[in-house]
């Protein structure tokens, strides 16, 4: 299945997680025995389907603001027989509120908002939970932001750099940055007191 879903997404220019990043993410889920997962950024459901397919006990809540992508995700999830395991929400991340606590929060949406999403959803992370951020090297652009000619892109890349520095220096967290995996993956856990 997902080879076709992946191919279709790539052909249509829908951004999905890179193979290496996905393998890494799935490994985290296995290692930490993550059952309750929140995903910020569904697109067409590719990564949600991959995560839920790992284990029948896994449940994924996933958020997408784009109506068309959300509808496609709903179809793809149903076609893969995973409607009981994946709950897609058509919502802006900023509007989503829940009391649920998750083993894993996978952040794969508006990169400029990563710092905000971290604070917004920290209370929804179990004390031993893991937060994973994708695209934290942003195609390698974080290494030389001044060479970026587009001002918007440069500002976005600077925000990602700021986010990396901020979490790195934040004593609440233990951070691991895997810059060579996929498009850069940042893994955050709460520091034990
Ligand atoms: C990189 S794609 C997600 C890819 C998906 N996780 C995968 O690997 O299959 C990011 C998605 O986040 C959505 N998005 C961006 N900002 C958002 C927001 N503020 N609220 C909800 N969805 C958002 C975009 O529409 C896009 O579909």
How does this model look, in words?
- With 193 residues, the protein is of the alpha/beta class.
- It has one domain: Vaccinia Virus protein VP39 (Rossmann fold).
- The chain contains six helices and seven strands; from the N terminus they run ααβαβαββαβαββ.
- The protein has helices at residues 2-11, 19-32, 46-52, 67-79, 114-121, 151-168; strands at 36-40, 59-64, 86-90, 102-107, 125-134, 173-178, 185-190.
- Strands 3-2-1-4-5-7-6 form a seven-stranded mixed sheet, with helices on both faces.
- α3 links the parallel β1 and β2 (59-64).
- The radius of gyration is 16 Å and the shape is globular.
- The mean pLDDT is 95.
- It binds S-adenosylmethionine.
Could you give a quick summary of the protein structure above?
The protein has one domain (2-190): Rossmann fold (3-Layer(aba) Sandwich). The protein contains 6 helices and 7 strands. The protein has helices at residues 2-11, 19-32, 46-52, 67-79, 114-121, 151-168; strands spanning 36-40, 59-64, 86-90, 102-107, 125-134, 173-178, 185-190.
């Amino acid at each position: 299945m997902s080879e076709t879903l992946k191919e279709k997404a790539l052909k249509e220019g829908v951004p999905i997680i890179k193979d290496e990043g996905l393998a890494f993410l799935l490994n985290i889920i296995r290692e930490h025995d993550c059952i309750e997962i929140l995903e910020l950024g569904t697109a067409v459901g590719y990564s949600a389907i991959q995560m839920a397919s790992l284990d029948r006990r896994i449940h994924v809540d996933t958020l997408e603001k784009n109506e068309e992508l959300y509808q496609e995700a709903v179809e793809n999830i149903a076609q893969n027989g995973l409607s009981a395991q994946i709950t897609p929400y058509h919502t802006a991340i900023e509007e989503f509120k829940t009391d649920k606590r998750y083993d894993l929060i996978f952040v794969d949406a508006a990169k400029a908002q990563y710092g905000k999403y971290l604070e917004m959803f920290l209370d929804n992370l179990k004390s031993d939970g893991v937060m994973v951020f994708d695209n934290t090297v942003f195609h390698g652009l974080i290494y030389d932001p001044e060479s970026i000619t587009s001002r918007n892109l440069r500002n976005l890349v600077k925000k990602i750099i700021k986010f990396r520095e901020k979490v790195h220096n934040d004593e609440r967290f233990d951070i691991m940055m895997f810059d060579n995996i996929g498009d850069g993956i940042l893994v955050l856990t709460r520091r034990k007191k």
